[in-house]
Amino acid sequence: MLPVLHADAAAQRQLGARDAVSIEADGLWFKDLNGNGSLDIYEDWRAPTDARVDDLLGRMSLAQKAGLMVHPAHGMGEGGALAEDSEVRWPGSDTPQTLPGSAEILGRRYVRHVLTRTDEAPDVIATWNNNVQELAEGEPLGIPITISSDPRNHFRHTPAGYTVQAGEFSQWPEPIGLAATHDPELVRRFAEIASQEYRAVGIRTALHPMADLATEPRWGRIAGTFGEDAQMSAKMTAAYVRGFQGEGGLNPDSVITMTKHFPGGGPQLDGFDPHMEHGREQAYPGDNLAYHLIPFRAAIDAKTAQIMPYYGIPVGITPEPVGMAFSPEIITDLLRDDLGFDGVVCSDWGITSMMAWGVEDLSVEERHAKALDAGIDQFGGADDPSIIVGLVETGRITEARLDESVRRLLRDKFLIGLFEDPYVDASTAMDAVGNEQSIAAAEEAQRKSVVLLSNRGSADGMKLPLAQGLKLYIEEVTPEAAARYGDVVETPEEADIAILRVKTPFEPGEGFFASFIHEGNLAFEGAELERIRAVMHAKPTVVVAYLERPAVLTDIVADAAAVLGTFGAGDGAVLDVIFGEFPPSGKLPFELPRSMEAVEAQFEDVPYDSVDPLFPFGFGLTY
Fold it and tell me: Is residue 443 pLDDT above 60, yes or no?
């Protein structure tokens, strides 16, 4: 049961604790987090946040400070129990490694920020939150844990949980699909609902939104963006931040947003992603860096609390060819001084190990130091704060420098109320997550995101919307969903019309990240194109293309009776549009190129600049 201490007075903050005793002062109650029997400033929820931060900072050991500055992924035991030590074999490695459990990570190493990639049920996640908070509460000073998550309200699911399919959370279009609605208020409503679901299970930091601009159509992470138009992306990003955090910055009802990937990860050279060495360079042939900053300016104006830089090396932008997180020109001069951001800067995961672009010749210790010199506050994916301790003990980094970062990290914890009550009610989590109202809103958003690209009809005049009761040949559509509208048959020859769901092509790559970050060719060709053509030539065909990247649809549009673009929509939502239950209203969040030659000729950093696009940005038909 969730413990609540003395929350009856009108001015009283709700307090949640498992082990900490309560202290009475002036008729109000407080948690004695350090167990000294006195009400210290950092325990006094009436005190100004800066005063609480300063008081706690003065009580922390060097090891405790360093523990706040790492942010690893952390697992759970069965049913939400604390994680035990385990043995893992990372992709691409034949050598097993020991993965430390909660007692080591949260206890002996004082780590106080962890990423969960679990797809367990909401009540299990909530139970785990309460268990890790109880462990932290029993440690010296009682500093609570901030749990973070990558997106978990959409359709995609990637290995190791870099995105988590919605499961029991409400399932919305991918961010690029939210952009296809061209409706910032819908985005804000999504973020408010997702924030409520996160808080119900104890997740208090969202490692999103992605404010990157999709100016390079081959880039494999476009589905997580709001498209290629900076002004629209700025509006969507600001709405997203305000929905998760609330107006005016952080408060006890906020989920922290970590807007990424500064200064915009869209202009990847030839579309290759910097998770992989061949994608380490960001290119600016159009000298268009300023354009990519527009959504980040909007996020900062909306008071995003945290920002994450990307891995890539900004070619020709900085004097030293190093990744963003190692560049003082990017982190300090541009982000902090020019844009005025004073929140937490957390590196992307693995910059001191796997993705140390430009600093490969430095030791792991030197990489940490260089990032701290650049202005990084926290190391995403790192779990060994002893490296930071060692930098101070050897004189390479001053403890005062650590204090700058720890102040920012503590400030966010105080502002969202974790010191007062980090616990959640696991018994109500299942009702709070994915409830009837949030599912209905998510399904409505799916319908609104569908874009009708062409509707030329068949030779006998059959066009969208289709009449019900037809014989339907389907591919990648569940028979149960299709049966609501017609009779499902086995072959095109038996059908009145065919409905095919297809995905944007890509070129398979090698390695872990290449398994889910799609790159290369965008055009349907070879056996796949011939298979689709065979159906289109046999019967009138509606092609529904999942546009995780801007596919080249020229050959399909030429023969299909109708073509729709989707960005994360279930079969029911798509069929509702096809059969006229919901008129199409989506508009393209990026242009669709006419050919791969046009893609290869365009500039990576410039929006809507392919020659003679098949469909321009903002295109969309209706009935």
Answer: yes
Average pLDDT, the chain: 95
Beta strands in 312-368 (DSSP E): 313-314, 344-345
Per the structure block, which two tokens stand in for 365?
Answer: 């210790």
Q: What's the pLDDT tens digit per position in 511-521?
A: 788 778 899 99
Beta bridge partners of 566: 546
Does 425 have pLDDT greater than 80?
yes
- CB of 268 closer than 8 Å to CB of 274: yes
Asked if residues 239 and 188 have their Cβ atoms less than 8 Å apart, the reply is yes
Closest CA to 220 of 540, 503, 450: 503
Pair 542, 464: CB distance under 8 Å: yes
Q: Which tens digits make up the pLDDT trace of 87-100? A: 776 655 677 778 89
pLDDT at 184: 99
Q: Bridge partners of 410?
A: none
Q: Does domain 441-601 have CATH number 3.40.50.1700?
A: yes
- The backbone region for 37, taken as left when phi is positive above 0, alpha when psi lies in -120 to 50, beta otherwise, is left
Q: How far apart are CA 148 and CA 257, in angstroms?
A: 10
Annotated active-site residue in 348, 383, 384, 605: 348
Q: Alpha carbon of 285 to those of 269, 345, 605: distances in Å?
A: 10, 27, 7
Specify the fold of 64-436. TIM Barrel (3.20.20)
The pTM (predicted TM-score) of the whole model is 0.96
Q: How far apart are CA 299 and CA 304, in angstroms?
A: 6
| Strand residues in 225-287 grouped as ranges (E) | 256-262, 281-282
Backbone dihedral region for residue 482 (phi beyond 0: left; psi -120 to 50: alpha; all else: beta): alpha
Q: What is the mean pLDDT of residues 414-436?
A: 97
Taking the CA atoms of residue 586, residue 590, residue 592 and residue 598 in that order, the dihedral angle to the nearest 10 degrees is 170
**pLDDT digit string, tens, across residues 345-368:** 999 999 999 999 999 999 999 999
Same fold, 64-436 and 441-601: no
Quote the CA–CA distance of 144 and 483 in Å, as a whole number. Answer: 51
Give the per-residue pLDDT at 513: 82
Which residues, in sequence order, are CB contacts of 206 under 8 Å at separation 6+? 148, 149, 151, 194, 195, 198, 244, 255, 256, 257, 258
CA 258 to chain centre: 9
* pLDDT tens, position by position, 64-74: 999 999 999 99
Contact 297, 339 (CB under 8 A): yes
**Domain extents in the chain:** 1-47, 64-436, 441-601
403 is catalytic: no
Which residues 6+ apart lie within 8 Å of 125 measured at CB?
Answer: 76, 80, 116, 118, 201, 202, 203, 429
